[in-house]
Design a protein that fits this description.
By secondary structure, the chain is an all-alpha fold. The protein contains eight helices and no strands.
């Protein structure tokens, strides 16, 4: 936790993702890190680190992540979009965006497959 605070205070933008992954292993016991993880998630100049911050937040305290998961559906990073597909709340906006990802020929195979799986209705047909 102290390491994450020091990284934020120093403006160290390279490395906090590794600290976030280590903190995630502590689950709710690392609750003190949540404000810093949220700051890093919102302000990091490194898009590839957002996934680590989001995963750490989910492991420590899922409260309030619905909006972040929804926003993740538009992220430039495949891994972050995958988190959004799997965790965004079920509502018309998110399901519509997930359908766009499913049908986008420029999207990665993994994202299209995850979107397809999320949209499969209980009957087995795509919604």
């Amino acid at each position: 936790m102290d390491e994450l605070v020091e990284q934020w205070t120093a403006g160290a933008w390279c490395g906090p993702d590794r600290t976030a992954r280590r903190l995630a292993r502590f689950g709710p016991e690392a609750a003190g890190a949540v404000p810093y993880l949220r700051r890093f998630l919102l302000h990091t100049p490194h898009s590839y680190e957002r996934t680590a911050y989001l995963e750490a937040l989910a492991a420590i305290d899922r409260d309030g992540l619905e909006y972040v998961y929804t926003e993740s559906l538009w992220d430039c990073e495949e891994t972050t979009r995958l988190l959004g597909i799997n965790s965004a709340p079920t509502n018309p906006e998110t399901l519509g965006r997930i359908a766009v990802l499913r049908d986008d020929p420029m999207e990665t195979t993994e994202v299209r497959a995850a979107a397809r799986a999320r949209l499969v209705a209980p009957s087995g047909r795509l919604s």
